[in-house]
Amino acid sequence: MIYRVFSSIKTSVWLLGAMTVCYVLGTIFPQGADIEKYISSGGRFQGAVRLFGLLNLFQSPLFLALTLLLSLNLLVCIYDRFRRMKRRSELIGIEALLKAKNTYRLRGIKDITVLEDQLLGQGFRLVDSTEDVRVFGRGFPYWWLSWAYHIGMVLAIIGCFVTFFTAFEGEVTLWPQKEEKISLYSPDTRINKLKKRLGLRVKEKEPEREFSLLLEDFKTDYYQTIRIKYPKKLLSRLAIATGFKGIELQRDEGLYPKLYRTSFKIKIPEGEEIEATTMVNHPFRTKGLTLYQMGYDQRVTLLINGKEKEVEIFKPFEIEGLKEKFMLKAVQHGRVFRKDGTTSEVKPRVELFRVKKFSRPESIAMLYMGKAEDVKGVMITFKDYKEGSVLSYRVDPGVWIIGIAALFVFVGLCARVYGGFYRVRVFQKQGEIYINISTRGLRANRDKILSRISFANKSA
Questions:
Q1: Closest by CA position to 329, among listed 302, 309, 350
Q2: Mind giving me the DSSP string for 39-106?
Q3: Which phi and psi angles does 14 have, rounded to 5°?
Q4: What is the bridge-based pairing of β-strands 307-312 and 362-368?
Q5: Contacts of 358 (CB under 8 A, 6+ apart)
Q6: Number of H helices and number of E strands within the chain?
């Protein structure tokens, strides 16, 4: 009884329907959100959200149970299909073949061996035979392809479970001349948290699985952009709109980041040292570790009336003698791709903003390295800066399983859809010769086979 339930396609449909409901709910409710923030922001159905854990639906016991049941259903179906394929017969009774729409009567051929020779000449092979019916085939059997991509689906689910329980992510900032370490092991994975709940011992770290990273260089490339001096007064804006006044450009050119590139040395646990590079959308992968270019961090040294002050970009700071708060945007340096097709190096510079309580920060000065600027009676010099590359990393032991699963599914589906599979059955009835042609796949062409056989006509 249980075997019949789990080998039924109806069970698959019901399970997939239930999972579809979960996917819809997971799209409606913000996954990973904090329940208190959800309530304070006016989220609806708060009771149901708490009761069913709708903010972490894809990690809930209900969704995991549905996934396990679907996996079991697929495994039983795969076994059942394999068992049937092992004893599959290519033979069909003559009476059933005569009633089939894809059966043709051949006129002009009196010797069935002539027809068989024609089929063998077209690349067919004898698959099965009795005294009455002989079966010829060409192409890989489509039922094995269907079986293959079902295997791929099961592997994909297994890979997702491995990822769910063992994968973890993190961030690391590489500063010049400072070595950082990343481990392939984390005590905070879900499987280790489960072990802790069960009272099992969990190691805090595994030094033999650590990578060492050392920054060599971090570079930024920019596009040149146009910065328009937008007037604050209404009449000035009106004059530009009516054409009485021209558009003015700011003195300092605009720069827009083109790419961030990090060059570093990485020492793998086995001791080998590798020269590596990562850029945005070009992650670096090795030995189960994937590194992504995420951003950068900068510390700027200013001389304010002769006194040094280290400032972190994008964070408000105070200047002695002035009441307002100020902020620095990112230091711009590196190669610029200009609109005229040339490239050049930009002198390091950083923009100084005044922080306002109820509006956007106001730009008040562009500081060039080594050049003093008078800011409201205070002499400020951009003296130096240091820059670190921020990388995110991911350790995911399940990704290779998902990759193999995707290959199974993709190859199986493509071969099933775009391939060419034939089964040709030839037989005689009351002195007449008949041919039955079954096809699968877009490349399979029944008419092409018939055109190569002499005197083929559809039977009445």
A1: 350
A2: HHTT-S-HHHHHHHTGGGGGGSHHHHHHHHHHHHHHHHHHHHHHHHHHT------HHHHHHSTTEEEE
A3: -65, -45
A4: unpaired
A5: none
A6: 12, 21
157 sits in which H/E element: helix 142-166
- The predicted model gives 421-429 an average pLDDT of 90
Given a contact cutoff of 8 angstroms between Cβ atoms, the answer to whether 441 and 421 are in contact is yes
Residues 6+ apart with CB under 8 A from 419: 139, 140, 142, 145, 440, 441, 442, 443, 444
In this predicted model, what pLDDT tens digit does every residue of 85-101 receive, in sequence order? 666 667 788 888 888 88
**Whole-angstrom distance, CA of residue 16 vs CA of residue 69:** 10
Nearest-angstrom CA–CA distance, 332 and 366: 11
CA-based nearest residue to 446, from 422, 425, 416, 410: 422
Alpha carbon distance 71, 56 (integer Å)? 21
Cβ burial, residue 203 (10 Å; 0-12/13-18/19+): exposed
CA distance 266 to 460: 76
Rounded CA separation 373/427 (Å): 99
The pTM assigned to this predicted structure is: 0.69
344: burial class by Cβ within 10 Å (0-12, 13-18, 19+)? Answer: exposed
**Spatial distance between the Cα atoms of 70 and 347, rounded to a whole number of angstroms:** 60
Write down all domains in the chain, each with its CATH number in brackets: 2-77 (no CATH), 94-139+419-458 (3.30.310), 168-295+391-395 (no CATH), 299-389 (no CATH)
CA-to-CA separations, 450 to 118, 137, 140, in angstroms, rounded: 11, 15, 20
Place of tokens 């998902």: 402
Residues above pLDDT 70, as percent of the chain: 95
Distances (CA, A) of 188 to 191, 207, 329: 8, 16, 35
In this structure, the strands spanning 125-129 and 362-368 are unpaired
Please give the DSSP secondary-structure letter assigned to residue 444: -
For residue 456, is pLDDT > 80?
Answer: no
Rounded (to 5) percent helix, strand, coil in the chain: 35, 35, 30
Burial of 174 (0-12, 13-18, 19+ CB in 10 A): buried
Measured at the CA of 30, the angle between CA 24 and CA 31, to 5 degrees, comes to 85
Residue 223 β-bridge partners: 256, 337
